Structure formats: structure tokens, C-alpha cells
Amino acid sequence: MADKPVRADKASAVAEFTDQFRASAATVLTEYRGLTVKELTELRRSLGSEAKYVVAKNTLAKRAATDAGIEGLDALFTGPTALAFVKGDVVEAAKGLRAFAKAHPVLIIKGGVFEGKALSADEVNKLADLESREVLLAKLAGAMKAGLSNAAATFQAPLSQLVRTVDALRADREKDGSAEA
């Protein structure tokens, strides 16, 4: 009889992890062996409110990933595993994890999943090399503004050239008219 509540707990944990996998923009798998409780708390705080860092049992997390339709992570579920479920800016979360791993070398980024595709540890680090969403949007806005300014200048140039030509012709006629008198 003691097994039934445990199974119910495991089923609810799998369901919760499955929901987290489905609701997250990305999930990063890490090995946290050697981190203290204080360091884990610091890591959770550094990821901010848009990411949730959870220690998981490999069998339950593996089952949840399968239930969520995610493939290619099975080999990563070895050793002590923690999952960073990212709901916000994936690049910022990857940067935060990489920075924390540099400061605390015992944290190992194993890999992850982004837009349903399994990622290696190197690919997670490449995500961290990208610029944040805000920076990319600002660059796009700047490029669009520059493009519009160039278009406006292009459309304005023939008009101003026409005005200068007409003004030069008028000046020539005035000059010719005063020479005849």
C-alpha cells in the first residue's frame, strides 16, 4: 500500500515536468554535482523570473521529455541532473548559465532543447554567444530607420535637382533678357 502514494507522487512529478517542457521556450540540462545549496540558490536568482531551475530525477525527467514529444535527450540524463526551464529570453538564460558555469566550474552544461530540437552543450554555448532579443530588435529598428532615411533622400534628390535646374534656366533667361535690352 505504501507504493501507491509514491507512484502518485512520481506521476504528478512527471506531469509537472511534462508541462514545464511544453510551456518553455527552451530547456537546458545541467549537472550540478559539487554545488552547495547556497550556490544553487544564487544560480536560481541569477536566472531571474523567466527561468525555473529544478533538480530532477533522471527517470522522471526522461519520461516527461518523452511525454512532451522531445527526442534526443536520453543520453544526457546521467548523473545528477537539473533542468533550467526558460520561458523568457533564451539567449539571456544561456548567457546566465554560461557565466555561472565559468564562475563555478563544477556546473556542467550537458545540452538542452530549443524549439523542439535537441541541442548539444556546444550549441547551448553558441546560443549564449548571440546578442539578446532586445539588442537584435534595436539593430533591426536602426537598419529600418536608415533604410527609410535613404529612401527619403533618394526620392528628394531628383526634386531638389529639378528645382536647381529650373532656377539655373530662369537665371540664364534673365541674363539673356538683360543682355538684349
From TrEMBL:
Gene3D superfamilies: 3.30.70.1730, 6.10.250.290. It holds the Pfam family Ribosomal_L10. GO terms for molecular function: large ribosomal subunit rRNA binding; structural constituent of ribosome. PROSITE patterns: RIBOSOMAL_L10. Keywords: Ribonucleoprotein, Ribosomal protein, RNA-binding, rRNA-binding. PANTHER family: 39S RIBOSOMAL PROTEIN L10, MITOCHONDRIAL. HAMAP family: Ribosomal_uL10. Belongs to the universal ribosomal protein uL10 family. This is Large ribosomal subunit protein uL10. It comes from Actinoplanes lutulentus.
